[in-house]
Design brief:
Helicase, Ruva Protein, domain 3; two-stranded antiparallel ribbon; alpha/beta; Dna Topoisomerase Vi A Subunit, Chain: A, domain 2
Length: 199
């Protein structure tokens, strides 16, 4: 038997569907929402519906935008000869936070994952190859995560891009700033040594 009324259980179930939200967090969110005024709840609901209706993929890079072309792709201040390939839109925000990169992006919306039945046709690889073929691209930076699936995706795409005779690079990985070598695992240390730069 349910401990809460059916409508509350339904609300908890919906919150529990969100990534990173467990049952207890879902309960807290549901009860917080119930404590809001009708106007606040309506505003919350409207924001969800509005985002779902207005946000779509940029026709060039597949990042999320409300316009046909995102602010990065439409900017004349960006270097349009460089493309940074990421697996999802939140990765764009992470790189932009650093304020160092000035090129454009290509969002794959996933990575290759045979275990999850995600192949090359399930992510935006064809669109990337079309961009490379039709534009004056000088470098493609592979910025997928340094896990098995991210590495496999980066290797697969780099092989497809090689015939275009442009530079394909990979983000360097290594020791985080402010950490100690004694706490780094072997793989991280090996990556740091491989990716060393001249001083």
């Amino acid at each position: 038997m349910s401990r809460f009324p059916v409508s509350i259980e339904k609300l908890i179930d919906k919150f529990a569907m969100l990534p990173g939200i467990g049952r207890k967090s879902a309960q807290r969110l549901a009860f917080y929402l119930l404590s809001l005024s009708d106007e606040e709840v309506q505003s919350f609901s409207d924001a969800i519906v509005e985002a779902k209706h207005n946000v779509h993929c940029c026709r060039i890079c597949n990042n999320l935008t409300e316009n046909e072309i995102c602010s990065v792709c439409s900017s004349e201040m960006r270097d349009h000869s460089t493309i940074c390939v990421v697996s999802d839109p939140k990765d764009v925000l992470s790189i932009e936070r650093g304020k160092e990169y000035n090129g454009t992006y290509h969002v794959l919306h996933g990575v290759l994952s045979p275990m999850n039945h995600i192949g090359p046709d399930d992510i935006k690889i064809k669109e990337l190859l079309k961009r490379v073929a039709e534009n004056d691209i000088t470098e493609v930076i592979m910025a997928t995560n340094p896990d098995t699936e991210g590495e496999a995706t980066a290797m697969y795409i780099s092989k497809l891009i090689k015939p275009f005779n442009i530079k394909v690079s990979r983000l360097a990985y290594g020791i985080p700033v402010g950490s100690n070598l004694e706490f780094a695992d072997d793989a991280t240390l090996n990556r740091a040594i491989e990716g060393r730069i001249e001083m």
